[in-house]
Amino acid sequence: MNKKPSAKKPGSQPAKKPAAVKPRSRAKASKSGSAVSGAGLPAVLNDLHPDAANPRKISDEAKRALRASLRRFGDLSGITFNRTTGELVAGHQRIEQLRAEYGDEPRLEHAADGSASLTLGGNRFAVRIVEWSRAKQRAANVAANNQRMQGAFTDDLASFLLEVEAEATEEMPGVFDDLLLADMMGDGLLAEDEKKHAEARVPEAFQVIVECEDEKQQRELYERLCKDGRTCKLLTI
C-alpha cells in the first residue's frame, strides 16, 4: 500500500540547510612569510626592519668584529653582570648615573630564567647575568666599548635631526639640549656648509710665464720642464 504524501501544515517553511562555516582568517603574513599580529609585533628576526634614514654607517671590518663579538659574548649594549666575580662586565656608566639619580637601594627583580631587571622612574632596565672567568669578563668589557667595531654618523645626521626637531621637542621639551642633540645638529649643519663652500671654492693656482725667442726655444724649454716633472702648457700669443 502506497503512502500518501503528508500534507504541509499551513504557514510552515521548508527546513533550511545549515550555513557553511567559513574558516577563520589567518594573521596577515609579513614580507618574510611569518605571521604578524594585528598590533604589528615582529614574529621573526627579519621583521625587525631598519630605519631607512638611519644616519649611521659601519665599515666591513667593523661589521665582522661586531658579528664576532655577538657570537662570543652576546649583546653587551646594556647592563651585564658577571656572577662569578661579582662585577659588571658592561654598563658601568649607566649604573653610575642610575645610582646618582635613584640612590643605592632600588631592588633588582629576578626572573625564573636567571635574568634580572630594575624598574626605575617608570622605565625597565634589563640586567643580564653571566657566569664567566675574569679573563672573558675583561675581554668582553673592551669589546663592548671598542670604537673600532662601532659605526659612525653619516653626513645626513643634521638633516635627520632637523626633520624631527619640532615634533620631538614638543613631545619631550628640552630633549635636544639635554641629550646634546642641538650641538650635534649644529656641528653637522656647519660641516655641511663648509663642505659646500669648499666645493664652490676656486683652487689657488701659481703660474710662471716665460717668454721665448722662437718656437724652437719654446719647445726645448717645455720638454726640459716636463722632464723635471713640471706641469706645463704651451701658449702661443
TrEMBL record:
Entry-linked InterPro entries: ParB/Sulfiredoxin_sf
Q: Where is the composition biased (Low complexity)?
A: 30-39
Instruction: Map out region (Disordered) in residue numbers.
Output: 1-55
Protein name, entry field? ParB/Sulfiredoxin domain-containing protein
